[in-house]
Structures are given as C-alpha cells and as structure tokens.
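Team,

Forwarding the record for the chain on the shared tracking sheet. I've put the sequence and predicted structure together so nobody has to dig through attachments.
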Amino acid sequence: MKRQLVTIQKCELNDLDLLHQIAIQSYNDTYQYLWHDKGTWYLNQFYKKETFEKELSNSGVFYFLIYDDNKAVGYFKMIEDVIEPYPASECLELDKLYLLKEGIGKGIGKIVMDFVISFAKEKKRSILWLKVMECSPAKFLYEKSGFIQTDIYNLDYPEIVEEFAPITTMVLEL
C-alpha cells in the first residue's frame, strides 16, 4: 500500500476548535498514566481554549496541525523562548509535540522533526530546545534527531505520580 502524504499546516485563529480538540485528545492518549486524576488537573490548568486562542494571537508562538491522508492526527507548538546560557535571539523551543494514537508508529514524528529543524533554521535560530518527560517514548525520537540532554528535574504538580515526575531538558545546536 502506498504511503499517504503527511502535511503540516500553520494554525490560524479559525483552526482553534480543531487545535483544541486534537490537543486534549492527544494529551489524554499520551499522558493519562502520569496523573492520579488521569490528567484532569493538568488539562484544567494548561489546556483551556482561551489559552490556545491567546497564544494563536502571539507573534512569538507558532502552532501547527499535522495531517495524515488529510486527517488531523496531531499538533506541535514552537515558541521564541530562551534557554540559558544561550542568547534569546538564537533560541527556539519545541514546547509541545503530540500525535493521536492513529498517528503513532508511521514515521510522522521523524517528518515533524525534519520540519521543526528546517523551521528553526528559517527563523535563523541556532538553538532548538525542548522538555520531555523522562518516561516518554518520544525521548528516543529527540535523541535520534540529535538532541542532547542538558538537565533533569522533577515536576512539582499536584496529582502527578511521583515515579513519572522526572522531566528532561534537551538541546540541539543547529
């Protein structure tokens, strides 16, 4: 069977409903096990529709939807944000990258990472960085893409399962 085309589309305000739906569903698909309450507290804190709407209007925040065969299967978010010790003008953060269950295991992560790296270069950024849960299978994708671990600490959020609290900071010098 021929592989269908994966496309990546920058989100605009008119994509808000779809983006919010994909964000909630993909987070639930990925990380419910991290939480005693299956992520309810976290989603209520960080996944409000109003937050997405505000960020879509921010020129330093970039959301993208990921499509496989014209079906939305994930999203990612990039932020013009600094990480020490690098100058702010050189840094771009990959803040979120989530796929729905049906998007996993198809090579889409690699396609997205290639896009992210190209996007950073287009923005004239030499430092791409991210944070990933230590227990996340996505950490392997980032390592394969050349990211190096620079820090690890425990998230201090209510409801998080302690054994899953470690989060890693990773950096890729372009």
